[in-house]
Design a protein that fits this description.
This protein has helices spanning about 10-20, 25-30, 35-45, 55-60, 80-95, and strands at about 1-5, 25, 50, 70-75, 100-105, 110-115. By secondary structure, it is of the alpha/beta class. The protein starts with a strand and ends in a 5-residue tail after the last strand.
Length: about 120
Protein backbone atom coordinates (compact mmCIF):
# COMPACT_ATOMS: atom_id res chain seq x y z
CA UNK A 1 0.00 0.00 0.00
CA UNK A 2 1.26 3.51 -0.85
CA UNK A 3 0.69 5.84 2.09
CA UNK A 4 1.40 9.46 2.88
CA UNK A 5 1.45 9.88 6.67
CA UNK A 6 0.72 13.42 7.79
CA UNK A 7 3.02 15.12 10.32
CA UNK A 8 0.70 14.21 13.20
CA UNK A 9 0.90 10.45 12.64
CA UNK A 10 3.11 8.87 15.33
CA UNK A 11 6.51 7.57 14.28
CA UNK A 12 5.57 4.15 15.72
CA UNK A 13 2.79 3.89 13.14
CA UNK A 14 5.01 4.97 10.24
CA UNK A 15 7.72 2.47 11.21
CA UNK A 16 5.23 -0.37 11.77
CA UNK A 17 3.68 0.15 8.34
CA UNK A 18 7.10 0.29 6.68
CA UNK A 19 8.19 -2.89 8.48
CA UNK A 20 5.11 -4.63 7.08
CA UNK A 21 6.21 -3.75 3.56
CA UNK A 22 4.12 -0.66 2.85
CA UNK A 23 5.59 2.26 0.93
CA UNK A 24 5.16 5.06 3.46
CA UNK A 25 6.30 8.65 3.12
CA UNK A 26 6.09 10.84 6.23
CA UNK A 27 5.45 14.56 5.96
CA UNK A 28 7.28 15.16 9.26
CA UNK A 29 10.58 14.09 7.67
CA UNK A 30 9.96 14.72 3.94
CA UNK A 31 8.28 18.14 3.98
CA UNK A 32 7.73 19.48 7.51
CA UNK A 33 5.52 22.54 7.76
CA UNK A 34 3.61 21.78 4.56
CA UNK A 35 0.12 23.25 4.37
CA UNK A 36 -2.86 20.89 4.35
CA UNK A 37 -3.45 21.80 0.71
CA UNK A 38 0.14 20.88 -0.16
CA UNK A 39 -0.14 17.56 1.71
CA UNK A 40 -3.39 16.65 -0.06
CA UNK A 41 -1.95 17.61 -3.45
CA UNK A 42 1.15 15.51 -2.77
CA UNK A 43 -0.99 12.48 -1.90
CA UNK A 44 -2.74 12.89 -5.25
CA UNK A 45 0.42 13.39 -7.32
CA UNK A 46 2.16 10.42 -5.66
CA UNK A 47 -1.00 8.25 -5.70
CA UNK A 48 -0.93 7.66 -1.94
CA UNK A 49 -3.62 7.20 0.68
CA UNK A 50 -3.41 10.13 3.09
CA UNK A 51 -3.41 9.05 6.75
CA UNK A 52 -3.94 11.82 9.30
CA UNK A 53 -5.36 12.91 12.64
CA UNK A 54 -6.37 16.28 11.11
CA UNK A 55 -10.12 16.73 10.53
CA UNK A 56 -9.47 19.69 8.22
CA UNK A 57 -8.85 17.33 5.29
CA UNK A 58 -12.56 16.47 5.26
CA UNK A 59 -13.38 20.13 4.73
CA UNK A 60 -10.81 20.39 1.94
CA UNK A 61 -12.30 17.38 0.17
CA UNK A 62 -16.00 18.07 0.70
CA UNK A 63 -16.42 21.85 1.03
CA UNK A 64 -13.47 23.17 -0.95
CA UNK A 65 -13.66 20.13 -3.25
CA UNK A 66 -9.93 19.71 -3.68
CA UNK A 67 -9.01 16.47 -5.45
CA UNK A 68 -8.67 13.59 -2.99
CA UNK A 69 -9.48 10.49 -5.06
CA UNK A 70 -6.57 8.50 -3.63
CA UNK A 71 -8.41 8.46 -0.30
CA UNK A 72 -8.17 10.10 3.11
CA UNK A 73 -8.05 8.07 6.31
CA UNK A 74 -8.79 10.09 9.44
CA UNK A 75 -7.58 8.42 12.63
CA UNK A 76 -9.85 9.10 15.63
CA UNK A 77 -8.35 6.48 17.91
CA UNK A 78 -8.24 7.17 21.63
CA UNK A 79 -4.57 7.10 22.35
CA UNK A 80 -3.35 5.75 25.66
CA UNK A 81 -0.02 5.38 23.83
CA UNK A 82 1.48 5.70 20.38
CA UNK A 83 1.99 1.91 20.42
CA UNK A 84 -1.78 1.46 20.83
CA UNK A 85 -2.48 3.86 17.96
CA UNK A 86 0.04 2.01 15.82
CA UNK A 87 -1.46 -1.40 16.55
CA UNK A 88 -5.01 -0.29 15.70
CA UNK A 89 -4.04 1.81 12.67
CA UNK A 90 -1.92 -0.92 11.07
CA UNK A 91 -4.56 -3.62 11.64
CA UNK A 92 -7.37 -1.52 10.23
CA UNK A 93 -5.41 -0.18 7.25
CA UNK A 94 -4.46 -3.74 6.31
CA UNK A 95 -8.03 -5.00 6.73
CA UNK A 96 -9.28 -3.36 3.52
CA UNK A 97 -8.12 -2.45 0.04
CA UNK A 98 -10.87 0.03 -0.89
CA UNK A 99 -9.56 3.23 0.78
CA UNK A 100 -9.25 5.07 -2.54
CA UNK A 101 -12.25 7.23 -3.36
CA UNK A 102 -13.34 7.45 0.29
CA UNK A 103 -13.04 9.70 3.29
CA UNK A 104 -12.69 7.10 6.02
CA UNK A 105 -12.81 7.63 9.76
CA UNK A 106 -11.15 4.98 11.91
CA UNK A 107 -12.47 4.96 15.45
CA UNK A 108 -11.72 2.54 18.28
CA UNK A 109 -14.58 0.20 17.38
CA UNK A 110 -15.68 1.06 13.87
CA UNK A 111 -14.80 2.38 10.44
CA UNK A 112 -17.00 4.95 8.68
CA UNK A 113 -16.47 5.37 4.95
CA UNK A 114 -18.00 8.14 2.85
CA UNK A 115 -17.46 8.36 -0.89
CA UNK A 116 -15.45 11.43 -1.87
CA UNK A 117 -16.94 13.91 -4.36
CA UNK A 118 -16.19 13.16 -7.98
CA UNK A 119 -13.87 15.65 -9.65
CA UNK A 120 -14.34 16.94 -13.12
Amino acid sequence: MNILANENVPQDTVVALQERGHDVRWVRTDAPGSSDEQVLARAQVEDRILVTFDKDFGELAFRVRLPASTGIVLLRISSPSSAHVSKIAVAVLESRTDWAGHFSVIEDNRIRMTPLPQQG
